[in-house]
Amino acid sequence: MRELRSICLGILLVLGAFRLTISHEDQPLSKIAIHKAVFALDDNAYIKASPSILGMKGQNSDWLTVEYNSPNPSVGDWIGVFSPSNFSSSTCPAENPRVYPPLLCSAPIKFQYANYSSPQYKSTGKGSLKLQLINQRSDFSFVLFTNGLLNPKVVAVSNKVTFTNPNAPVYPRLAQGKVWNEMTVTWTSGYGINEAEPFVEWGPKGGDRTYSPAGTLTFGRGSMCGAPARTVGWRDPGYIHTGFLRELWPNAMYTYKLGHRLFNGTYIWSSEYQFKASPYPGQDSLQQVIIFGDMGKDEADGSNEYNNFQRGSLNTTRQLIQDLKNIDIVFHIGDICYANGYISQWDQFTAQIEPIASTVPYMIASGNHERDWPGTGSFYGNMDSGGECGTPRTMACSDFV
Ligand SMILES: *[C@@H]1O[C@H](CO)[C@@H](O)[C@H](O)[C@H]1NC(C)=O
Ligand SMILES: *[C@@H]1O[C@H](CO)[C@@H](O)[C@H](O)[C@H]1NC(C)=O
Ligand SMILES: *[C@@H]1O[C@H](CO)[C@@H](O)[C@H](O)[C@H]1NC(C)=O
Ligand SMILES: *[C@@H]1O[C@H](CO)[C@@H](O)[C@H](O)[C@H]1NC(C)=O
Fold first, then answer.
1. In angstroms, rounded to a whole number, what is the distance separating the alpha carbons of residues 47 and 113?
2. Which are the contacts of 143, defined by CB distance < 8 A and separation ≥ 6?
3. GO MF terms on file (predicted)?
């Protein structure tokens, strides 16, 4: 058997401030009145993005450069990143209460001011921006807006950019199962059950492989309780798969890969990940537990920035990744990513925590920013979930409550 480490039980608590219920910071994207955007295309303006294919080495996050030029630059000019790229104004749901066309029905997935890394933009009209994108099932386009965030005008629209396989299985997150020797793995892909069979290939490190089937869930716009989740913040969540890895040997190292078998026989694979199985019940062992709430997300390229909103979440994430060897399980006890009704942010959050959640169980619970919405049975009847009312957080992980 593996060595039993006879060390007294120690618990390392990293406690964030337990202020789950009183923060009212806005989602940065909510600062954009996208529903008021009008088209004012200018033939002498341009915006272009390169490269147009991302993830050539199979990676699910990549950098690109956006270059733009406007004959009438002004201080409030900004760049919006849209995904899918065809962010057309043609299909605004009737329930959108703010209807005065023309209007855009989808918020960008992120944005940045045109002068961010080009301070001379205001005088020259020329600028460029480095952005990091993650694979989130669709292509991207970049739009140069003028006239600020509150009355935006579309000046130019870029070429389209895509990852090599937008549907690829991505961002695995582990959760301790209902019994001690079970681990669940949840991930996201663009493959529904009519296209492919999802499964996990796994086994003890260096040993035989086992194949376990996975379930597939998704949710629609109609299961959102209000705006912006049901209006400009809506984005197709893709498919969320969960597989169950059972009868794990205590303390053993396992490796796993996510797979999809397309019905024409082709296999699509993720990269390989690993985790350590839990100790057996009562085992004399040191278990180091991290517990926090309120982490949020942020963009490494500096976009979506508003009043230093959640900058620190990148520091926290980086620190956890550095300490991963000394962490056995993480509890993120609510207020997970503050998507607040902008569904695209959930993908970005699962990408941010991937190095942690793919390696140790990442257990979550709902906070007010995932759950609260008037008249939906939430403990507080306020609007902190931005209309999500608890559904999109299934994109993050399995629950522990
Ligand atoms: C860049 O644009 C923002 C937003 O309009 C503005 O607040 C800021 O002062 C500008 N920075 C420079 C260097 O012009
Ligand atoms: C964008 O393209 C997708 C895929 O081709 C299509 O399903 C969708 O209806 C289009 N959306 C709009 C608003 O045109
Ligand atoms: C199966 O379908 C995928 C996706 O459409 C395609 O890339 C692949 O080449 C197909 N494989 C075969 C053997 O036809
Ligand atoms: C957080 O990270 C940023 C960027 O690396 C760094 O400048 C800043 O000092 C860090 N903040 C803290 C509190 O460590």
1. 14
2. 47, 79, 80, 82, 87, 108, 154, 156, 157, 158
3. acid phosphatase activity; metal ion binding
CB atoms within 10 A of CB 266: 9
> For the segment 2-59, what is each residue's pLDDT rounded down to a tens digit?
333 322 222 333 333 333 333 445 789 999 998 888 889 999 999 999 999 999 999 9
For residue 311, give the ligand nearest its CA.
Answer: 4
For residues 266 and 289, the answer to whether their CB atoms sit within 8 Å is: no
| Residue from 31, 77, 113 whose mutation best tests the ligand 1 pocket (most atoms within 8 A of CB) | 113
Measured from the CA of 119, which atom of ligand 1 is nearest?
13
Q: How far is the CA of 172 from the centre of ligand 3 (A)?
A: 24
The predicted model scores a pTM of 0.90
Q: What is the DSSP letter of 399?
A: B
Q: List ligand 2's pocket residues with C-beta within 6 A.
A: 84, 86, 88, 90-91
Q: Which of 34, 86, 90, 234 to mutate to test the pocket of ligand 2 (most atoms within 8 A of CB)?
A: 86
Pocket probe mutation, ligand 3, options 261, 266, 267, 268, max atoms within 8 Å of Cβ:
266
Which CA distances in Å does 63 have to 55, 152, 303?
A: 9, 26, 13
- Determine the pLDDT at residue 308: 74
Find residue 256's DSSP bridge partners.
202, 273
Q: How far apart are CA 395 and CA 185, in angstroms?
A: 12
Give the pLDDT mean for 258-286.
Answer: 97
Domains of the chain and any CATH numbers: 32-163 (2.60.40.2840), 170-395 (2.60.40.380)
Name, in order, each residue with C-beta under 8 angstroms of 126's C-beta and a sequence gap of 6 or more.
67, 68, 69, 118, 120
- List the alpha helices (DSSP H) in 68-170: 121-124
What is the tens place of the pLDDT at every residue in 74-105?
999 999 999 999 876 555 665 555 545 546 78
| CA nearest ligand 3 atom 6, residue | 266
Q: Which ligand is nearest to the CA of 236?
A: 2
